[in-house]
Amino acid sequence: MSKLLQKPEKQEVAEGVTIIQSVTKGNSPLEYVEFKIVELAQGAEYSELLIKKECCIVALTGKINVTVGEDVYHDLGTRDSVFDKVPTDSIYVSNDRGFELEAITEARVALCYSPSDKQLPTKWIKAGDVDVEHRGILSNKRMVHNILPDSAPYANSLLVVEVYTESGNWSSYPPHKHDRDNLPNESLLEESYYHEMNPPQGFVFQRVYTDDRSIDETMSVENGDVVLVPAGYHPVGVPDGYESYYLNVMAGPTRTWKFYNDPDHEWILNR
């Protein structure tokens, strides 16, 4: 199996609390991005203290309360399934703070991390404030929920987006990359993809490759998998009959998303 493909692996860490995915510096090639998927039974609680890292808490499904210090954010979450295709609530928590999750209903929560040493205010990213963007034409259509884009001033390194790709379409396409600290032409951002499919028995294909092919992996990606992108181009293809959802986490030395298209395939933008 590819070193860039991480399968779900359930780990019960407390009563009613199961970690499904855990991407850390210790088990991945990424230096700037860490990631968890936490499933909570109704009434279950989960807490963390952030040491030298920031976190974006995304209420993927179900409803949760989030406590950060003296602040309590009630009844967060808008979806029974990510394929309800509506934005959801998120909470940005800066470094050296603690947070607690409490599940009002059964819930799935994404925790998106990057290194941070400048403390910023906690931010409730309300579902109604999330920008919804439609990109692409022909068989290159997708819908994007910009949860924490580079235009948002309330994070140090993190960028977080959700992407929906229609049946038979391509996404992150034409192939693009952001692995050189070469602004204003390109920024250096690592990336992770957390994938879900509808129906859930589906799969997508994702290729990660560099110009010199020192990385060249093509993966069959199933529901709940995470693909790691330390460098290179990273397109996603969705087979007929299935819809694709993925949650992207990006981070790097500069919080700017400036990508570079593979020149061999950039011509499709001019059709």
From TrEMBL:
<dbReference type="InterPro" id="IPR024203">
    <property type="entry name" value="Deoxy-glucuronate_isom_IolB"/>
</dbReference>
<comment type="function">
    <text>Involved in the isomerization of 5-deoxy-glucuronate (5DG) to 5-dehydro-2-deoxy-D-gluconate (DKG or 2-deoxy-5-keto-D-gluconate).</text>
</comment>
<dbReference type="GO" id="GO:0019310">
    <property type="term" value="P:inositol catabolic process"/>
</dbReference>
<dbReference type="InterPro" id="IPR021120">
    <property type="entry name" value="KduI/IolB_isomerase"/>
</dbReference>
<dbReference type="GO" id="GO:0102482">
    <property type="term" value="F:5-deoxy-D-glucuronate isomerase activity"/>
</dbReference>
<dbReference type="GO" id="GO:0008880">
    <property type="term" value="F:glucuronate isomerase activity"/>
</dbReference>
<dbReference type="InterPro" id="IPR014710">
    <property type="entry name" value="RmlC-like_jellyroll"/>
</dbReference>
<dbReference type="InterPro" id="IPR011051">
    <property type="entry name" value="RmlC_Cupin_sf"/>
</dbReference>
<dbReference type="Pfam" id="PF04962">
    <property type="entry name" value="KduI"/>
</dbReference>
<comment type="pathway">
    <text>Polyol metabolism; myo-inositol degradation into acetyl-CoA; acetyl-CoA from myo-inositol: step 4/7.</text>
</comment>
<dbReference type="InterPro" id="IPR023770">
    <property type="entry name" value="IolB_Bacilli"/>
</dbReference>
<comment type="similarity">
    <text>Belongs to the isomerase IolB family.</text>
</comment>
<keyword id="KW-0413">Isomerase</keyword>
<protein>
    <recommendedName>
        <fullName>5-deoxy-glucuronate isomerase</fullName>
        <ecNumber>5.3.1.30</ecNumber>
    </recommendedName>
</protein>
